[in-house]
């Protein structure tokens, strides 16, 4: 799906990302390996996502007594995972951002309700929204609406996603042009069951429950 909308960032195609995605797409990959290799991709997504947060100048003194004009992140962040699969991305965020606050939104696919549990000051934070799969976009749109209802400015939302369908990208970006989506790969399409193809199957089942 190229060119991608301006607010969608796809991880660069490298041998590493191709090999990691091949492992997690393979139906014969064991649950242990699925978790290990998904976690590797999630870590790369978080690292890329952090590149898109604003910084301000900060000058420090090094142990040699010299000044260094550097930067620090501007403002506070939090994570918000879309349950259940999004919870698999929480650890990757914690590994990069120590003691980060993490909220949750329970959304069942194809259902209208959402049960949020968000940090009380969520509106004052950059929100890293976590969900590995963007299929029709229904769940992501609902979660983004919940964040907006809680006064999070749209341009402070960064949606981190492992695998996206063009349909989901279109649905989210045609409604929201100010947030950013960082994804590891944009797949071909959705099948008749609204699964991403070629895809990787049901992420939540493979990460949390399959043998
Ligand atoms: C998956 C995934 C997303 C949603 C994407 O969750 O984690 O939340 O589907 O599909 P959509 O873009 O069409 O809304 P699922 O409902 O399978 O639940 P799970 O997280 O419990 O596995
Ligand atoms: N959720 C998944 O886990 N996989 C898909 O392909 C679509 C939604």
TrEMBL record:
The keyword Ribonucleoprotein does not apply. GO terms for molecular function: GTP binding; uracil phosphoribosyltransferase activity. This is uracil phosphoribosyltransferase. Belongs to the UPRTase family. Keywords: Allosteric enzyme, Glycosyltransferase, GTP-binding, Nucleotide-binding, Transferase. Its cofactor is Mg(2+). Its EC number is 2.4.2.9. The keyword Nucleotide-binding applies. InterPro entries: PRTase-like, PRTase_dom. One of its GO terms (biological process) is pyrimidine-containing compound salvage. Pathway: Pyrimidine metabolism; UMP biosynthesis via salvage pathway; UMP from uracil: step 1/1. Coiled coil: none annotated. CDD domains: PRTases_typeI. SUPFAM superfamilies: PRTase-like (SSF53271).
């Amino acid at each position: 799906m190229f060119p991608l909308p301006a607010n969608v960032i796809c991880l660069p195609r490298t041998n590493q990302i191709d090999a990691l995605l091949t492992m997690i797409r393979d139906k014969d990959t064991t649950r242990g390996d699925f978790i290990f290799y998904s976690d590797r991709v999630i870590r790369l997504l978080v690292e890329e996502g952090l590149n898109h947060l604003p910084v301000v100048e900060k000058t420090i003194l090094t142990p040699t007594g010299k000044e260094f004009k550097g930067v620090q992140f501007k403002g506070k962040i939090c994570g918000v995972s879309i349950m259940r699969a999004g919870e698999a991305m929480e650890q990757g965020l914690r590994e990069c951002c120590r003691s980060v606050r993490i909220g949750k939104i329970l959304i069942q696919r194809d259902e209208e309700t959402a049960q949020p549990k968000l940090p009380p000051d969520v509106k004052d934070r950059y929100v890293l929204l976590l969900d590995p799969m963007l299929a029709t976009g229904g769940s992501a749109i609902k979660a983004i609406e919940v964040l907006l209802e809680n006064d999070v400015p749209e341009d402070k939302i960064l949606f981190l996603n492992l695998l996206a369908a063009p349909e989901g990208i279109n649905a989210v970006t045609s409604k929201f042009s100010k947030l950013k989506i960082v994804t590891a790969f944009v797949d071909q399409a959705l099948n008749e069951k609204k699964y991403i193809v070629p895809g990787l199957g049901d992420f939540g089942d493979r990460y949390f429950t399959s043998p």
